[in-house]
Amino acid sequence: MRGEPGSGAGATTGGGAASDLPEAAVRRLESTAFSSGLTVPDFAACLDMGLQPVALVQGFCVMQWGWYGPGSGYMRGMSPYSGGEQTPGAYSEIYRCPHGYVSNEHRMWGQNLEQPWVEGAWAQGYGAAYSRMLEEAGTHGAHGVIGVVDRVSNVADTGTTEFHFLGTAVTVEGGPPPAGGVPWSTYLAGQRLTKSIEAGFMPVAVVAALASVRVWAYCMTEYYMEGTMGWGVPGEPRLVEQVSKAHMAVRQLARKHVRQQLAGDELHGATIDVVTRELSQGDEVVDCTLRGNRVRRFKDFDQVVLPRPTVRLA
Amino acid sequence: MTEQTAQSEPQPPQSATGGGAHDLPKDAAHRLEELEHGLFTSDLSVNEFLLVKEAGFHPLGFVMGSSIYHIGIQTRKWGESQELAKLTEAMYTARELAMNRMEEEAEELGADGVVGVRLDVNYYEWGNDSAEFIAFGTAVKAEDGTSYRNALGKPFTSDLSGQDFWTLMQTGHVPQALVMGTCVFHIAHRKLTQALGSMGQNVELPNFTQALYEARELAMTRMQDEAGRLNASGIVGVRLEEKSHQWGSHTIEFLALGTAVTKTSGEVTLPKPTTIISLDN
After folding, report:
1. Is residue B241 part of a domain?
2. What value does the mean pLDDT take over residues A263-269?
3. pTM for the structure as a whole
4. Angle at B253 between CA B77 and CA B213, to 5 degrees
5. Fold that domain A28-65+91-297 belongs to in CATH
């Protein structure tokens, strides 16, 4: 799944489509008192905007990522030496050694390749947790979820990954039910959300995507990453082309995946996180996560009040 | 989702001396007596102090409560996710004891409430399986004589800063109490057959998802139940904290904390924020 997280493509815990909330969640959500994860300034801004918080909502999904498993169908393209079939349409670049045959250990072949199976697993976990959060919001008749926080972390020492969503479900005073019955969502809250709406943009959904590129280093990349020109000879500063291109590609791929979720809307407040996991001999995996708010223009900008010059005394 | 493993509510705490109140140490009583003569202490910053005053409250004194609690042992099943009710109860009771003692100190000062409450847990080398739970904050009293005590007749408590306290009052809400819910949960280890069955696949692990989901929901439900007992209209600033303490990575305490609030008036006139350009470096 690489669509909009709210598309519900993520599997539910019971394998069904909906209403798989734990019994404790149902009981909690029946409470008449609202709960919110908003800070007090955000809570105040929320009331000022005509939004009424109804409940702190959450969604989780624990995923096992098994793409390294031996014999797995996810091994496609894991090694350029294996001659495996590349995923159609996925990014791939091949690098060839300029030296000719040197020895069996000499790395004559290198490749940057996108790992769609990793990206798909991430999107599945993210989408499932997100869908569950929206499901909780839906049980409250919420119009939207603001102040969304998502976290991806490891569960104890199990080697699995948890996708964790939290947000504050809100209703809009006198507002119509959300389009398609699916609440809108945004990472924003408080004054940031107020300013975005005043600027003429209504929140649609939080969007995010992971792009993952595996770098199989060839001899030159291996040498450069060691800081040599080969055979231990110190070298001068040089561009490490294969790694540079992997970093460029992973960012572009993340942007492409997110753009596919926008469906003509705009992306605001995007954040980008790049994590590099070094393997050995110049090999590495570069993961890039891009998150942001999908927004839709619904009116022209309000007149912006001129800011007042201020000196803080503290 | 299947039925959860345990839903027992934590029991009301027993104080160290067996009684419900006035078990403050002699030194505490002496310190509070001194504060009653007009001098006040507080851990408020200058800005917080100004805004607490602006909200119509005067700080009376820095108050605290402490409880050193022996956390017992509960057997857990290696391959089964379950709530460890005894540990849940211990963690809840210990915090409640510390909070009660802090409230007693506030009572001694005749406070309407306590702002900026913090809850800490400390472990000492000399006490295996024991932990010190501490609650502290600044007791405040309304300057116009209005009572802001909560539905239980006790001083309100809240973990809001001075700034947040002022902002909350502007929204027409008043704090009732710092409410919390806790759940200590054992996350099952995966059996070899389960691991082999999903080897090499990207799949969701429903047992883990369900266990973590359940544990957090139980903590949040208990927090909301506390708010319900106070007839609160809502809880703001909810935080979900997770710690393994000293139990190993598969046993986790999920703690939900927030400030229960009630609405006082229908009319809310919030000051409009002003956009500024900072001339500081």
Report:
1. yes
2. 93
3. 0.77
4. 80
5. Translation Initiation Factor IF3 (3.30.110)
